[in-house]
Automatic annotation (TrEMBL):
Name this polypeptide is given: Mannitol dehydrogenase
Taxonomic path: Bacteria, Pseudomonadati, Pseudomonadota, Alphaproteobacteria, Rhodobacterales
Record-annotated Mannitol dehydrogenase C-terminal domain positions: 289-470
Keywords tagged on the record: Oxidoreductase
Domain of life from the UniProt record: Bacteria
Any one Pfam family match given in the protein's UniProt record, by short name: Mannitol_dh_C
GO MF: oxidoreductase activity, acting on the CH-OH group of donors, NAD or NADP as acceptor
Residue ranges occupied by any Mannitol dehydrogenase N-terminal domain in the UniProt entry: 32-280
Stored Gene3D superfamilies: N-(1-d-carboxylethyl)-l-norvaline Dehydrogenase, domain 2, NAD(P)-binding Rossmann-like Domain
Length: 492
């Protein structure tokens, strides 16, 4: 295109006809939701569902106010405010590309060390939902016990300074305290992260943190607020030069576009203490059995992502679709899904574990989605403990095979050593990278050094049915290479 149209309200009518734009009057929208964590996933998923309702003439009093508790998000805040909080969503279907401008977000709060503006906004009675996408590892959960990590310095700080907290959860507690004092009912806390029982985990964090400083407030929150569980699903790559170029190819000057696959799913427990949008009219599913859906997705898709990404990093395969095109990685992935994960997943209405495995294989192989192995491998300390190890423990308890899951852990250990097999460096890619790398280097000669990280593995080092194949696979990876180990497993 010769001329780019800047993405802002005043220029929407000038965008190319092929680009879908808001048909509602954004000046008439009022806020009902504060969303903390304005990453690509939220803008392609929850914001999109709300936008679709608004396109139907519905939910105009449920617009989103964005928020963050991380100063690192300040540049993104500036980018979004400069374009009136509009986002171009670019769907990457193998058959072609399409673009849609989403307008359900109407503001982005200042990012402050004491979170005063965020607390004030959440205390406003008009806000009926506070939603979060803060990553799986961001909920202050002990990875072994699953309980609240009350000893974490952030939680200790927020308990000691409840009026000037540093975390999203401390800000929620402070806002709920103001609502209680004013006689205002609580809001619903809605986690949109890939955690099994994410609503229950959010309740645990908020109520437990409140209890450290104000037990009566904690009881009020626990009794009156709601925290629905939900399962979210859509593959949304990070935005880089290629994604910016895709927006420009549509004729749009968007500083923060989002690409996504041609699939979305949102399954929600219908437990909202202050009302909710009718997301089901935009394709979401309300059900009392979120656990079945989320177990299938987290165990098969999210754990499957880790199977691919760690192997891909070691073998210098840069994308998830590239991993699916790599015979050894794909064969490993497919066998683990079939033999070691599917037996621990129950069917849900309209979907068996076997058919879901075929669906995610097709989605992962979509070459139009440039989803990097680095992005998917990020924060393995949370993703392995949250996605892979629970299946491993179930397999050990049931006496079903765990050889492939043990190999997956060995691949993670090899990746964390920090080099690929071609000699290139793997840049730090985990909040705990330094300690992981130290353990990975030691495990090259002594595999037990990796399993000695009890914060992830608990007592698994003492379980021969796991520790022995783990040590055997890690030794093979270092001696013969990752591809040889993958092939040996796939051939049985």
């Amino acid at each position: 295109m010769d001329e780019l149209i800047p993405l802002r309200d005043a220029a929407l009518a000038e965008l190319p006809d092929a680009v879908s734009v808001p048909t509602y009057d954004r000046t008439k929208l009022t806020a009902g939701i504060v969303h903390i964590g304005l990453g690509n996933f939220h803008r392609a998923h929850q914001a999109w569902y709300l936008h679709r309702l608004m396109q139907m003439g519905l939910a105009h009093d449920w617009a989103i106010i964005g928020a963050s508790v991380r100063q690192a998000d300040a540049p993104q805040r500036a980018r979004l405010l400069a374009q009136d909080c509009l986002t171009t969503l670019i769907e990457l279907d193998p058959s072609g590309v399409s673009a849609e401008v989403v307008g359900s977000m109407i503001g982005y709060l200042p990012i402050e060390d004491d979170n005063a503006a965020l607390i004030a906004q959440m205390a406003d009675p008009a806000i009926r939902i506070v939603a979060l996408t803060v990553t799986e590892g961001g909920y202050y959960v002990d990875p072994v016990t699953g309980g609240f990590d009350a000893g974490h310095p952030d939680m200790q700080h927020d308990a000691a300074h409840p009026d000037s907290p540093r975390t999203a959860f401390g800000a929620m507690v402070a806002a709920l305290a103001q609502r209680q004092a004013a006689g205002t009912p609580p809001f619903t806390g809605q986690s949109c992260d890939n955690l099994q029982g994410n609503g229950a985990v959010l309740r645990q964090t908020v109520v437990s943190l409140a209890r450290l400083s104000d037990p009566a407030l904690a009881d009020w929150i626990d009794t009156n607020a709601s925290f629905p569980n939900a399962m979210v699903d859509c593959i949304v790559p990070a935005t880089g030069p290629a994604e910016l170029a895709l927006a420009r190819a549509q004729g749009i000057d968007d500083a923060a576009p989002v690409t996504h696959e041609n699939f979305r799913q949102w399954v929600i427990e219908d437990d909202f203490c202050a009302g909710r949008p009718d997301w089901n009219r935009a394709g979401a599913t309300f059900t009392d059995d979120v656990q079945g859906y989320e177990s299938m997705k987290i165990r098969m898709l999210n754990a499957g992502h880790q199977l691919l990404a760690n192997a891909g990093e070691i073998l210098s395969v840069p994308t998830i679709s590239g991993c699916m095109a790599h015979p050894a990685i794909a064969d490993f992935f497919n066998r683990v899904e079939r033999d070691e994960i599917a037996p621990h997943v129950q069917p849900v209405p309209g979907m068996t574990p076997e058919s879901y495995a075929a669906l995610i294989s097709e989605r992962f192989a979509n070459t139009a989605i440039v989803d990097t192995t680095r992005r998917v491998a990020f924060d393995g300390s949370s993703r392995h403990t949250g996605f892979v190890l629970p299946i491993l423990r179930d397999g050990l308890a049931a006496g079903t095979p765990v050889e492939g899951l043990a190999l997956a852990e060995a691949l993670w250990a090899r990746m964390c050593e920090g080099t690929r097999e071609d000699g290139s460096m793997i840049a730090p890619n985990d909040p705990h990278w330094d300690s992981l790398q130290t353990a990975a280097i030691a495990a090259k000669d002594d595999p037990a050094a990796w399993l000695a990280q009890t914060q992830y593995y608990g007592n698994l080092a003492n379980v021969p049915a796991f520790a022995q194949p783990f040590g055997r696979w890690l030794a093979m990876i270092w001696t013969d290479g990752a591809e040889a180990a993958l092939t040996a497993y796939a051939k049985g």
